[in-house]
Amino acid sequence: MKSHVKAVVIGGGVVGCSVLYHLARAGWTDIMLIERSELTSGSSWHAAGGFHTLNGDPNVAKLQAYTVQLYKELEEISGQSCSLHLTGGVMLADSPERMDFLRLAHAKGRYLGMDTELITPSEAKKMFPLMDEKHFVGAMWDPVEGHLDPSGTTHAYAKAAKKLGAEIVLRNPVKELTQDPDGTWNVVTEQGTVRAEHVVNCGGLWAREVGRMVGVELPVLAMEHMYLLTEPMPEVEAFNKETGREMIGVLDFKGEIYTRQERNGILLGTYEKACKPWSPVNTPWDFGHELLAPDLDRIAPSLEIGFQHFPGIANAGIKQVINGPFTFAPDGNPLVGPVQDLTNFWVACGVMAGFSQGGGVGLALSNWMVNGDPGFDVWGMDVARWGEWASLRYTNAKVRENYSRRFSIRFPNEELPAARPAQTTPLYDTMVANNAVMGDSWGLETPLWFAPKGTEPKDIVSFHRSNDFEHIGNEVRATRERVGVTEIANFAKYEVSGPAAEDFLNRLMTNRMPKKGRIVLTPMLNEFGRLIGDFTIAKTGDDKFMIWGSSAAQKYHMRWFEKHLPKDGSVRIHRFDQTLVGLSIAGPKSQALLQKLVDVDVSSKAFRFMDFREMAVGGAPCMVNRITYTGDLGYEIWMAPAYQRLVYKAIKDAGEEFGIVDFGMRALLSMRLEKNFPTWFRELRPIYGPFEGSMERFIKLEKNDFIGREAAAKEHAEGPKLRRVSFYVDAQDADVMGDEPIWAKVGAKDFGTVEKPHGYGAPRFDETGKEVRGSDAATGASAVRGIVDGDWRVVGWVTSGGYAHYVGKSMAQGYVPAVLAENEADGLFEIEILGKRRPARINVEPPFDPSGDKMRG
Ligand SMILES: Cc1cc2nc3c(=O)[nH]c(=O)nc-3n(C[C@H](O)[C@H](O)[C@H](O)COP(=O)(O)OP(=O)(O)OC[C@H]3O[C@@H](n4cnc5c(N)ncnc54)[C@H](O)[C@@H]3O)c2cc1C
Fold first, then answer.
1. d(CA 679, CA 133)
2. How many Å lie between the centroid of ligand 1 and the Cα of residue 377?
3. Residue 181 Cα, ligand 1 centroid: separation in angstroms?
4. What pTM, to 2 d.p., does this model score?
5. H helix intervals, 719-803
6. What share of the chain is helix, strand, coil (3-state, %, to 5)?
7. From atom 4 of ligand 1, which residue's Cα is the shortest distance away?
8. pLDDT of 621-658, one tens digit each?
9. How far apart are the C-alpha atoms of 472 and 667, rounded to whole Å?
10. CA 197 – ligand 1 centroid, Å
11. Is the CB of 734 under 6 A from ligand 1?
12. Closest ligand 1 atom to the C-alpha of 349?
């Protein structure tokens, strides 16, 4: 065993071996994987080995597609078979809602380059004769599904990594991790200490314990999972003989069941409602190649439905029941990336579908370690998406909820109840008493909308417009015509201070920093000139700035800020989280309302649009921004939590004469739509350039050298290929949700060069599996081309949308080829909503207050 290496990967499951292989492939060969026992000694050895590409997050789906595509290369390099069976599979819908869900998935698949197809139950039965089609209303066929040998695949990664020069040390538990002042890690193992620049936690079932070695509580929990294998079945043998094909994989949402052929019988697994965590607090170190006791009673309800739906299987004898544990993060997606506050400590764990996701996880993490950036939009699996509130107990409740809902529909207006409330502001009880329907915003309870008194404050979940529609409309109209108040504690808030604070921000941000007492809006870019942040910044003192941004991105942004902080202490950064809370008032009467609450002049001359001022509001010390996300005349008021109730009461009392209303997040988001304002993580993500994102007003290429400037200048000079645009949609009773395809009537004109980007900069792969390198405004591998219907062609994708209540229109934002971005013609675009194409028209100017006169006051 070497005593010094560049990187140590802890854990020889499929994920650790994939990370090792990808690091070696990227050129880091002085690396070592340390495994406690033998390879696959965690959850990897007893996996059912199924793989598929579909995922709710299209960016994660893309990395899954990469994983599946990688296996052939892996077999060639390693000489080890993965026993790939690319059978294809169907998802069966038992209800109209589930069919809507499949239509949505199919629509997303269109621009992800997936070849899915909506089919009838009898077509599905032809592929899988063991089913009874009368229980289903439709299905979706996906050709890129199948199964493989989990152990062979893990060994294939390991062998390929070894061929490239990596070392693998078996039967050697890592006992302790310490870090020297120079950042070197001491990996203390049973066989001695290895010194390494980087450590990667791929501990799988023990990832939590490995995290604790460095004082980090990772939000992962293992769940028991069961599948059974039938005796050989004559029906299966007959089907194979007749068709010359293996049986396909089948997913039955109603029964919470997945099945596939295993030898001459069937493998059937369940994600049962009565699920059970395994080792909820500590994972025993002596657990290894053993299985857990089967508990057929627990999965009996699923089996009962399964046997009705698949009578062919009901009569087969059960040969074996496998019960094994594997880990989940609270939302079921992996935890990948560098851990904030630690240098060169990386994680790749909580991977619940190692054989669908392991390759993509390995690629993204190795890019991140080698190039300083994952090269893909990996937000959906970034470890930074969880805050301090994701404690052991929070994780336990959420993972159980997620597991038991694995095959349930998540409606776009559905808030999940487990582990709530986690964080609350002082106004929580008041908001609940005001009949607010509350939602979870990065662990914080936030009002979504207000039900009228006497009505139950509850969402009726649906893909269509629902019971909140009328009430959100009332909140919007009252705000636009009079004045409204809403909680904005769910923004991220930071203070940057110190003699070099301004230089630091100028280096990170694309816009010029404001003068004292003024505010600017500014994107932030990475080295590849891609959008990684969008902030409001106020200069609050000579060497002091306040920054507001996306709440969910707090850890993500802190990691970036800290990485670039000067080492000499000349800049300090503080994240407030919930130690600073806020209220926003908006609408034509908001100025008169504020004036009643303060002892200074807040007329539009004295307190201008984009001004910042500290002032007492209702007697409480506050910071006030003359800006609001509704796009109205309005204010954001920030205060310590101890004052929030006082300020809220003062606002409501003083606002009575103006007819003030409470409004929630949904009204806020509706109002921003009619101003064409983008949102972070929807319109603005690391896959887009600032000009693509239509953010040019905030990009000052000439100001000074900032991170990403060169790439942004190139994008500007060449002209962006894509543009973010806003649409009116002729919708019926359902609005867009995001990720719907945008069609254009462009005749024979081919927009084949326009693709949905998922990656940039770092290595990526074309359809033939060939690696493409470069730091150009890359396109990932997701194509909108080739989807043609007569004169119509899919040319883009929706990022978000909804109903814009004040202007009375359904609206959407999305990306289209730049050449089409200013074409406001009728009849040119259609947007697919729940499988039906609806006419759409670009609106270049925002429909509400296009001149900005109302906003400026
Ligand atoms: C019953 C069942 C069915 C499944 N079916 C599927 C499926 O069909 N498709 C699919 O994609 N996934 C499936 N999975 C999930 C899949 O098994 C996991 O996603 C995958 O195994 C995760 O791999 P990993 O490398 O992260 O973790 P693990 O396989 O748990 O590997 C972690 C490794 O780290 C080692 N380790 C931990 N701590 C230390 C230490 N301190 N020092 C040294 N070594 C250490 C362990 O010994 C272990 O070998 C299934 C799982 C189960 C249980």
1. 43
2. 24
3. 33
4. 0.94
5. none
6. 30, 30, 40
7. 47
8. 999 999 999 999 999 999 999 999 999 999 999 999 99
9. 5
10. 25
11. no
12. 26
